[in-house]
Amino acid sequence: MTDTVQAEVIMSFVVSEELAFRIPVELDFASADPFAVRLTFDLPGDAPVTWAFGRELLLDGLSRPSGEGDVRIEPASPAHLSDVFISLQVGSERAMFRVSAAPLVAFLDRTDRLVPLGKEEVCDTLEAVLDRILTEAPAG
């Protein structure tokens, strides 16, 4: 059985400096995939969209600019660690979100109690499959 941690946070979808929309976002963590966290955006009129990325990226992004490529996370202000920007990019399209750091810290704390950072292990089923493949491999 997989243990999970879930939380709902309110993020601001930043359209411009003058315009932002508050949206609920579901955070998910599963012990079966201990390196990843998932953000699910369930906007009215659209199918839910889920982004998965490293749990360590989320942790690092709370205190310093982190990530490259499609997911970037950084504090909104270097002087105050109260809000975080999360940037998600597909091709040339980018979405920017602003969220309070406090619920992210609480979520990460709960994930750490379930699977401590640095103590992640490969899923048991993957180990079993690898053992079977190695056992069945012809000697040669």
UniProtKB/TrEMBL annotation:
GO terms for cellular component: cell septum. InterPro entries: SsgB, SsgB_sf. The keyword Nucleotide-binding does not apply. The keyword Cell division applies. One of its GO terms (biological process) is division septum assembly. It is found in: Cell septum. Keywords: Cell cycle, Cell division, Septation, Sporulation. Belongs to the SsgA family. This is Sporulation-specific cell division protein SsgB.
